[in-house]
Write a structure and sequence with these properties.
single chain; mainly alpha; 8 helices; 58% helix
């Protein structure tokens, strides 16, 4: 199952909970280590609580009603860990090549994106209160994601440029979500769709290359559950 489908399907699950649990305790422990087989200087450690927080952000943004803090499916946690590993690998590469640091504007935009992921500023605040998430933890997440964005923008310029000939070819193939509509009505929406797809492929290739040449040790017990 593709990650996006997995996350969306998981969001439809009903958990046995009626609302926000006050000061819920997140499980601690190491989910993965990037850059070394053991925690040490220069390596990045991803905690089980990091994975849980990102997974709950996504669920909060996909569900309405009270924040739910019931058990998370291993498949959702595994997919979220993959996402965080990709971010960590790209952020590490950005540091290695000494890419320009994200600007204050980059940080503000990424904070808004993170809040949007969780369903908005108010919903993010509710989730943070429920999980006792500090300002410093959110700031670190925002900086890492902004660093990744700056790196990808610098290295993928032109990767998502879609010309009219490509749009015509894909439209004729029928391999797109715009069936039953005229080409001229969907030309620009299709351009956006194709650009996003091209960027996704480019990012996946970057992550595959970086993971192949970087020591990554995964310790999370749910790491093999992504296709369940």
């Amino acid at each position: 199952m593709r990650r996006a489908e997995l996350l969306f399907a998981t969001a439809l699950l009903t958990f046995a909970s009626t609302g926000v649990e006050a000061q819920a305790v997140r499980v601690e422990g190491i989910a993965a280590i990037v850059g070394a087989p053991t925690p040490r200087a220069g390596a990045q450690v991803l905690l089980l609580s990091d994975v849980e927080l990102r997974a709950r952000m996504r669920l909060a943004g996909q569900r309405e009603g009270p924040i739910v803090l019931g058990p998370l499916p291993p498949s959702l946690l595994a997919a979220t860990l993959d996402e965080l590993l990709g971010e960590a690998l790209i952020a590490r590469e950005a540091e290695r090549v000494q890419l320009a640091s994200p600007t204050e504007r980059d940080l503000r935009e990424e904070r808004r994106r993170l809040e949007s992921l969780a369903g908005g500023e108010s919903r993010m605040r509710d989730l943070r209160n429920a999980l006792s998430v500090s300002d410093e933890e959110i700031a670190a997440i925002v900086r890492r994601r902004a660093t990744v964005k700056v790196f990808l923008e610098a290295n993928l310029q032109g990767a998502a440029t879609i010309d009219d000939a490509t749009i015509d070819r894909v439209f004729e193939s029928g391999e797109h979500p715009f069936l039953g509509q005229s080409l001229e009505d969907v030309r620009e929406p299709m351009r956006v769709w194709l650009a996003r797809r091209a960027l996704d492929r480019s990012v996946r290739r970057w992550v595959e290359v970086l993971r192949a040449r970087t020591v990554v040790r995964v310790l999370a017990p749910y790491a093999e559950a992504r296709d369940e």
